[in-house]
Automatic annotation (TrEMBL):
<comment type="subunit">
    <text>Homopentamer. Pentaxin (or pentraxin) have a discoid arrangement of 5 non-covalently bound subunits.</text>
</comment>
<protein>
    <recommendedName>
        <fullName>Pentraxin family member</fullName>
    </recommendedName>
</protein>
<dbReference type="GO" id="GO:0046872">
    <property type="term" value="F:metal ion binding"/>
</dbReference>
<keyword id="KW-1015">Disulfide bond</keyword>
<dbReference type="GO" id="GO:0005576">
    <property type="term" value="C:extracellular region"/>
</dbReference>
<dbReference type="InterPro" id="IPR013320">
    <property type="entry name" value="ConA-like_dom_sf"/>
</dbReference>
<feature type="domain" description="Pentraxin (PTX)">
    <location>
        <begin position="21"/>
        <end position="225"/>
    </location>
</feature>
<comment type="similarity">
    <text>Belongs to the pentraxin family.</text>
</comment>
<keyword id="KW-0732">Signal</keyword>
<keyword id="KW-0964">Secreted</keyword>
<keyword id="KW-0106">Calcium</keyword>
<keyword id="KW-0479">Metal-binding</keyword>
<dbReference type="InterPro" id="IPR051005">
    <property type="entry name" value="Pentraxin_domain"/>
</dbReference>
<dbReference type="Pfam" id="PF00354">
    <property type="entry name" value="Pentaxin"/>
</dbReference>
<dbReference type="InterPro" id="IPR001759">
    <property type="entry name" value="PTX_dom"/>
</dbReference>
Length: 227
């Protein structure tokens, strides 16, 4: 494995454009500071799809994706709940619980969440299995300069990480993070889950992404079986 320690303790690095195809982020320890922060030019989204793959042995609640806006830290969040089969999704400060999704420890989990402003419906897909659609927030787009963080949950715009217990921090590996400003079709989502064909994210594209990191987070080759 090629290991790159990205930086330590501060945002000394500029945002750099990376092609992370075939790579993953490894978050090897529980902290209240380690994070990866993405940048995007987009400021107005009438719909969202976020897909990512995670691998963890965390049984506690943890943040998988945290998008904050100046108007509220819970712009678009995907939180794995402490309840083993549940997720919490937040859209524009509105929360909804998704249950009966069979999240497995120490196995890659493919997760996609979709939302659109006209219906206000969200849906969470896990390893090919869709959830019930649920209402969160409708009428308004997700707008303003977004701060997107992996590894921590933003309780305030760009910060507010839980310092006491690193309570919602992510420990494990994460890869193939994409975000679109439209809802992917079920077939496209299935393509993502199967690691077959899917469109690259037009808001965040893992194969061409700008990010900064803080703390001990490494870029490594994806873990895959030997051929
Ligand atoms: C990223 O790298 C992969 C594998 O090397 C390559 O197939 C792909 O075209 C690259 N994508 C971009 C946008 O550079």
């Amino acid at each position: 494995f090629r290991k790159i320690l990205l930086s330590s303790n501060n945002f000394s690095q500029e945002f750099i454009l990376y092609n992370l195809s075939g790579k993953m982020f490894t978050f090897p320890q529980q902290t209240s500071t380690t994070e990866v922060r993405f940048t995007t030019q987009r400021q107005d989204m009438r719909a969202v799809t976020v897909c990512l793959r995670s691998f963890t042995d965390l049984k506690r609640e943890h943040s998988l994706f945290s998008l904050a806006l100046p108007t509220g830290a819970n712009g678009f969040l995907i939180i794995k709940s402490a309840q083993s089969d549940a997720f919490d999704i937040w859209v524009r400060e509105q929360h909804v619980k998704i249950e009966a999704q069979d999240f497995k420890l120490n196995m890659w989990q493919s997760i996609c969440a979709t939302w659109d402003a006209s219906s206000g419906l969200i849906q969470l897909w896990l390893n090919g299995k869709p959830s019930s659609k649920k209402y969160t927030s409708s009428g308004h787009s997700i707008n303003g300069p977004m701060i997107i963080v992996l590894g921590q949950d933003q309780d305030s715009y760009g910060g507010g990480f839980d310092t006491k217990q690193s309570f919602q921090s992510f420990v494990g590996m994460m890869e193939d993070v994409h975000m679109w400003d439209y809802t992917l079709s079920p077939c496209e989502i299935q393509g993502y889950m199967d690691e077959h064909y899917y469109p690259e994210g037009n808001v965040l594209n893992w194969n061409s992404v700008e990010f900064q990191s803080v703390g001990r987070v490494l870029i490594e080759e994806k873990l895959r079986a030997c051929n």
